[in-house]
Each structure stands twice: as C-alpha cells, then as structure tokens.
UniProtKB/TrEMBL annotation:
InterPro entries: AB_hydrolase_1, AB_hydrolase_fold, AB_hydrolase_sf
Organism field: Tenacibaculum tangerinum
Location of the AB hydrolase-1 domain: 21-243
UniProt KW Hydrolase keyword: yes
Pfam families in UniProt: Abhydrolase_1 (PF00561)
Molecular-function annotations in GO: hydrolase activity
UniProtKB keywords: Hydrolase
Name this polypeptide is given: Alpha/beta hydrolase
Length: 258
C-alpha cells in the first residue's frame, strides 16, 4: 500500500487489529526486515511497517532526508490509515526517526523502543566517517555496502549467519545511491534527543553487548541518564537476526498493556 508525501509515495504494510505498533527500519534496510516479528505481534496488535524515504519501495524527496522529514512521511502514512496513537519500535536509524516523530507529534506517541539505536547525536568523528562513505558511494557503491553490512554483525556471528548477511546485503544494494547519501546526510544533522525520549512514559532501549556501531558502555550510561529500562542482548547491531528469540520476547513484553 502507498501514501502520498510531497512529490513521492511512501510504501507501507498494515496488518492485524488492535492497539497499533509502528515498525521503522534502519539505514539500508526496508520494511521486510520486520516480517517474522510482524507475524508474532499482529496476532494481538495492528502493525504498520513503513519504508522510509529513499529505502525499499519509497522514493526520495531530495538530496538530504532529515529525520524530521522522514517523521513527516511516517505521519502521512498514519493519517491515511487513521491511526491517532501508536507504539514506535525503531531499529538504528528508525529509532532516530521515532524520536523526531515524538518531538514533532508527541500526542501521537504511546511508547518508543530504540532498538540498537540512541538519542545521542553523531560525534564529529562519526560525521567524518559518514562524509567519507558518501564520497565512496559515488565511486564504488557495491564495495561500500558489502563492507558496511558485514560490519553490523558481531564478529563471531558473521560465519554463522553468512546466508542472512548475504540476503541483507542484496536488499541494501536495492537502496539507490541517492537514498544512501540523503539518509546519511540527514543522520549527520541530528541533535541530541534525550529530552523527547524522557517525555514518553513507555520507553525502552535495546542494545547488543557486541554492537560494533553503538558502544555498549555508552548505551548503558545513556539508559541510566535518561532513566530508561534497558534490555541487553549478546549480539551486534542486528538484533532481529542475531538474537531473534530474545528480541521477540523483549518486544512482546514491551508492547503488552500494563
């Protein structure tokens, strides 16, 4: 299904009935990453999965996709399907978009789970790495994506999950170079969003102890600083593939009414 946003269309799926859960994928991913989780939680909830700008079947709107603009695209989908409030679960970049949505539309957010994600803005070093990658994307995109995807997984999982990694790589290569650069530029522009997270009563951080992207100790400190419950998993940045069962249990517990 599609919703209109600016000069493009936003692809989404809408499954199940009940209290709504919105699933937002990460950088170089698309809504298909949530297939197995959707099967589980749609038994009791309405689940909306959205392809963010420049990813999956959703087009680009410009050469920089800020997290705020992506949040506006999400809002366009929710307006079309007549959803007023929802719980948001965002993986990596999807968490950044969830925070931008909560800041812009706080009354529409029932809860937020940052899965392998953070409220913190990019460090200067991280911004430089993104800029360097953007330049490489213009010259040797396939090599860049191949390296990037492998580096998301804990080292000891790379052989065990080789088939899954190859599948993720192929899906990532479907993201156009323009979509890659626009999202990367948008992530560079993020500000610290600890305060918006703390305004949400129902909140959760999920981290991998061996996440190569987000430092585990830093996330633990972030959870304490923001008084946010933390679920620690024994994996890298890709919890939905590296620790599927544990992740599903944690998310089911987060979603259920209290």
């Amino acid at each position: 299904m599609i919703a209109k946003f600016k000069e493009t269309t936003v692809f989404y799926t809408d499954t199940g009935k009940g209290s709504c859960v919105v699933l937002l994928h990460g950088f170089l991913e698309n809504s298909s990453m949530w297939t197995s989780l959707t099967k589980e939680i749609s038994k009791r909830n309405r689940v909306v999965c959205i392809d963010l700008l420049g990813h999956g079947k959703t087009g680009c709107t410009g050469y920089i996709h800020t997290m705020e603009e992506m949040a506006e695209a999400v809002k366009a989908v929710l307006k079309k399907v007549k959803i007023r409030r929802a719980i948001f679960i965002g993986h990596s970049m999807g968490g950044y978009v969830s925070l931008a949505f909560a800041k812009k539309y706080p009354k529409n957010v029932k809860g937020i789970c940052l899965m392998n994600s953070t409220t913190m803005a990019d460090s200067e070093e991280r911004k430089k790495l993104r800029k360097r990658a953007n330049n490489m994307a213009k010259e040797n995109y396939e090599t860049l994506v191949t390296m990037s995807i492998s580096n998301l997984f804990a080292e000891h999982m790379r052989t065990k999950l080789s088939k899954e990694i190859e599948k993720v790589r192929k899906q990532a290569l479907q993201t156009p170079v323009r979509g890659y650069i626009a999202a990367s530029e948008g992530m560079c522009l993020r500000s610290n969003e600890e305060k918006p997270l703390q305004t949400i009563e129902k909140r959760l951080l999920i981290t991998g102890k061996q996440d190569p992207i987000l430092n585990y100790d830093t996330v633990v400190k972030e959870a304490k600083r923001t008084h946010t419950p933390l679920v620690e998993l024994p994996n890298g940045h890709m919890s939905h593939l590296e620790a599927t069962i544990e992740l599903h249990k944690a998310l089911a517990n987060f979603i259920k009414p209290r």
